[in-house]
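Lab notebook, design round three. We kept the backbone fixed and only want residue identities now. Task for the bench partner: fill in a sequence for the structure below.
Input structure tokens:
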């Protein structure tokens, strides 16, 4: 029977930033004592969970904004699946899509550097990230490479979607560049498609399974909606009048490229992790 390694901080119950079961994240305000310890001390004494906290001052020394992530710890957890991304939006979406699996979902440790995407296809990059992150984290990792392809732009941004118009350029500017290039193109074709390639790797870096999902649609004339992330506000999936940025999460989860890729790989993951329990 295969066994998945259990992160040491989960077995010991120690607070750590190494990796968490992703359950929920919410922003809450509490009134603390002047030492700011009352709530925090009570939670740290709990054997059931600890908090990953960020306590920036909000103008009043007794009022702190707490970014709280609830994390269950203990030896009865597992098996574990690490999502190979530092992208918060992608982590949220994949955690929801994989919620039915018999696994505890962890995020990458903060000290794990991003894997360089040197592949020529989405599938190659997904494999590079899954294998690389798995070896660095010594864990089972599911990683994806995804992006937007526009027909009139010869498939751009494509595998360079995250780096289009500059690595550190916000997506508002990346979308503006895509819209500008599309307006200048010698075609009225606004057809586009999102692609998501998934790769699942063992702690040794062996690729155990892959999947791919595609969602076809068109490019809107301007960004619409604040939901989702990345290029979502300018992508209208076929059969809809709303962009991904306007669709609610439940509806997007039925049709998105990432949802389709996850649907394809979930049967393998379910069977694989069932053997670990």
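Proposed sequence:
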């Amino acid at each position: 029977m295969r066994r998945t390694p259990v992160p040491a901080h989960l077995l010991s119950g120690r607070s750590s930033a190494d990796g968490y079961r992703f359950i929920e994240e919410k922003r809450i305000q509490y009134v603390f004592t002047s030492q700011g310890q009352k709530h925090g001390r009570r939670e740290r004494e709990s054997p059931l969970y600890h908090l990953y906290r960020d306590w920036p001052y909000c103008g009043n020394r007794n009022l702190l904004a707490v970014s709280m992530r609830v994390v269950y710890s203990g030896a009865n957890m597992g098996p574990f699946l690490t999502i190979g991304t530092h992208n918060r939006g992608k982590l949220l979406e994949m955690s929801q899509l994989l919620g039915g699996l018999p696994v505890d979902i962890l995020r990458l440790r903060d000290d794990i550097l991003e894997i360089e995407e040197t592949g020529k296809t989405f599938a190659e990059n997904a494999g590079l990230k899954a294998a690389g992150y798995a070896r660095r984290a010594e864990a089972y990792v599911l990683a994806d490479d995804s992006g937007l392809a526009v027909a009139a732009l010869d498939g751009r941004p494509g595998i360079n979607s995250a780096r289009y118009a500059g690595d550190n350029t916000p997506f508002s500017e990346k979308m503006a560049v895509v819209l500008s290039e599309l307006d200048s193109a010698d075609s009225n074709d606004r057809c586009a498609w999102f692609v998501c390639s998934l790769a699942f790797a063992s702690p040794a870096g062996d690729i155990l399974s892959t999947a791919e999902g595609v969602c076809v649609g068109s490019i809107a004339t301007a960004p619409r909606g604040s939901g989702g992330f990345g290029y979502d506000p300018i992508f209208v999936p076929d059969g809809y009048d709303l962009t991904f940025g306007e669709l609610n999460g439940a509806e997007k989860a039925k049709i998105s490229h990432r949802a389709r890729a996850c649907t394809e790989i979930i049967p393998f993951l379910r069977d694989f992790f069932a053997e670990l329990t």
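Keep this in mind before ordering anything: The mean pLDDT is 78.
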